Each structure stands twice: as structure tokens, then as C-alpha cells.
Please model this.
Amino acid sequence: MSSLLTLRNTAVTTDTGGQLLQNVNLAVEPGQIISVIGPNGAGKSTLIRVMAGLQKTTLGEVETRSSLRIGYVPQKLVAPATLPITTQAFMQLHNRHGATSDLPLATLGIESLLNKPLLALSGGEMRRVLLARALIRKPQLLLLDEPTAGVDLIGQVEFYQLLGKIRDETGCAIVIVSHDLHFVMAATDRVLCLDQGLVCCHGAPEEVSHHPEYQALFGAGTEKAFAVFSHAMDGHQHVHVHAHPHGSDHIDAGESVHG
Amino acid sequence: MDELIIKALLGGSLIALFSGPMGCFVVWRQLAYFGDALAHSALLGVALSLSTQLPTGVAVALTSAALALMMLRLRQGNQLADDTVLGILSHGALALGLLILALFEPVTMNWMGYLFGDILAISWVDIGSAALLAIVALGLLSWHWQALVLIAVDQELASVDGISVVRMELLFMLLLAMVIALAIKIVGILLITAMLIIPAATARTFARGPTQMAILASGIGIISVWGGIGGAFQWDLPTGPAIVVTALLLFLLATLIGKPLARIRVPN
Model:
């Protein structure tokens, strides 16, 4: 089976000569969940934007399968306040894929938001709506830029379970930029770790978590937590987690993911 | 009724019909100053039509379109802020147009009419071409409506969805140039942007969706045109300013009653 999207020696340089990405090689296969991790400013969002065709590359090739349908979920969306539109109308704007599939709306718990004005949505609601909007268009490749920022741990567990469900039901590939190291390790097929625009390590989660570059960036010992969370991801909802420095906006993954 | 009034009402209504939805995009995308710059360049078009014998409408549409493309290009570079670039082009084009006019001006020509609108200058040919243009433009707008609205909400989402943002941008600029070429005789160069913005801003108070806002804006524009032309003929006033002042009054009225109305609709 051919790759959905292939990056070869991709580099992105700013006008002032800053290197945002250097020599990135990556092939996205159908049905694969790939996580992109790395410290702030490592080039994670730039990579997603290159894949979405929003960022021009300075060097290298970006090859996409012909007529590839991409679903893109940005970190946030700031619609102009002068434009009145309901959430439903926004989601259906220029939608060429006909009927709404039932998965996104119910699973994401956004049915109650459909008649609200788009401008009235909270940040978390907006992200759920953006994800549903992308799913309605039946993407073959879903690109998510930090979808769980500001979501509490239970919400994160649910969100990563939802990703697995989306992949299983639609067969789409998912590339997700994330800071949730533990979940990334547990819920994805491949991990790409970026540092200062370079891929410092990539591969299966277990390999990456033992990689010296990874341990240098995120510290050794994350494997232990990884084991705990792998267990949590096996389908148990009752994760008892100790104090953790995360926001508490328990919304993104939706409350209705139960089994 | 006087044939003059009928022609003015017909021409004005056609323009309002088309400038309603276009004005919504100008308001959504914060292109008011951009529209102003395009309108100012129209005087250059008028001057060129006098020196080349091209029909005024065609020359105006061509120069406005050319300037629109130039502005799109210049906006890409970020050495200067948008409003600086627009200011340079806008006033540069206006001044250049005035100079060329001064050089070519036949003594009898009333070029003030181009600045403030000259309803007496409207011919049946103008009305006919206005009707044709309005039909074509509204057709193009409704054909690409969803894509254009999505671009107004978020350009990047539109681009990932496979919409050619550059092509749509080009289409939009050409349509804007057409509005200006059409409106120049009725409201005049200096007031065209008002015809785009004020009805759309008034419609925003009541509209719940983009299409509704566009239709409302057209309606409010048509009422302004009728009110303004009526007043102008009644009290012997310049038509362009009379139309714009009518639109302004409607806007003030809408803001006064709009807020209490919104409170009634949304109880919490």
C-alpha cells in the first residue's frame, strides 16, 4: 500500500534564516497514528502545517497521494466577530461529503452546540467542533495540533481512546502534535521526536522511550509512568492519578466516551 | 414620475443589490480601507478613459482590478504594514488621477460628479450594463458563496479543504472592482466605501447567518438609495451624500433598537 504522504529531506527556513525544520523524512501510512513530540519551539506545529500544505518548504519534497482528503484541526480558531454564523452552518460550510456521519457529533458530545453562534463557543468547545468538522469531511489523513491542551487527565484518556476509535472505524491516518508524553507513548503507533527542527529520534513508542536523545530531552524514568498509562489505555476508565501540572478544562474529548 | 428619477432609482437599486453581499465581505474581512483605496484608484480610471476614449466603466474596472492585484502583491511582503501600503497606493492613485484629469479636462466636464456622484449623468445604456454586471456578479457570488464565506471565517481551513484561496481572492477583487465601476456614477468615488460598509454593518445587528446578513444588507442598501434619491430630488441635494446619510440614519436607528431587540431574543 502506498503512503498517504511522504516528506523527503524537508526543511523550512524563516526569512531571517532561522531553521524551523531541517532534513525531516517521514512517510504516513494509512491507518497509522503518529505522534509528534518535542519541547516548545521544536517545530512541531510547523511540521503539521507543512503536511497540511499551509507552510511552504524551503527544501525537500512533500508528496501526497492524489486527491488526498486532509482534515486539519488547528490549535484554535478566531472567527471574525462581524460574521454571524451558527456552529452547524459553520461545520457544513463548503462540505462536499454530504451526510453527517453519526460518529463525530455523538461521540464528541457537540449536539447541544449546533444551534449556538460559533462566536459563543469556549476554547474547548471550539476544538471539539473543529475536530467534528474535520471528521464530517471523511478525511484519509487527520492532522491535530495540540488537541488536548488544557484538558485534564481523564479528558485526555478519553480523547486518546477516541482517536483509536476514529482510526478503527474510519481507517484514517492520524498525526497528532502533543505534549502528553505518557498518552502518546501508550496510544500511538509511531512517535516522532523533534528538537530544534531536527528529528532526534523516531520509531515505535517503546524504542523511542529508551532512546538516549529522548531521555536527554524528557528525562529517564518516563517509561515507568508509560507502563501505568498503557494500562489505563487498555480501556479502564478509572485512572487514579496523582497530582499533575495540567490545566483542568475537562472538555475536549467529550463526556460521552464510555466503552 | 420623472425619467431621471426612474433611471436613478433603477441604477441605484442594482448597485445596492450587488454591494450588499460584497459589503458583508468587506466588513467580515476588515477590508474597509482596502475598498477605499480601490475606490480612489477609480479616479485614475476616469482620467485614463478620458485620455484613451475607453468607456468609463471599463477603464475604471480595469484600473481598480490592476490596483487590487498590486495591493495583494504588496501585502505579501512585510516590510511595511498593510495600512501604509494601502495609504500610499490609495492617495497616490487619487492624486495621479486628479493630475491627469487637470491635464485632459475639457472645460465643460464636471469631474466633481465623479467624486460625489452625478445622477444626471446616468444613461439607459448605463442602466443596461449595470443590470448585466449585477446579474453576472451575483451569479458568481452565489456560485462560490460557501467557499468565500469559509475563507472569511478562516483562510487556512479553506485552503486545507482544497479551496484555491488565491483564485477566490482574485475573483473577490475583480468583483469589488466591478462594484466600484458601477457605483461611481451614483454615489461617487469618495463615498463608495460607505455604500459597501454601512448597510452591511446595519445588517449585522439583526442577522443570524451570513446569507441572511447579505440579503439584509442589499435590502438596507436599496432603502438607502430610494430614501437618498427621494430626498435629493425633493430638496435639491447632491445624491451621493443624500444616499449615504440615509444609510447612516438607518445604521443609527438599528444600533438604537438592535440592542434591546437582542436582549428580548436571548433572555439570559
Q: What stands out?
A: Chain A has one domain: 5-239+246-258.
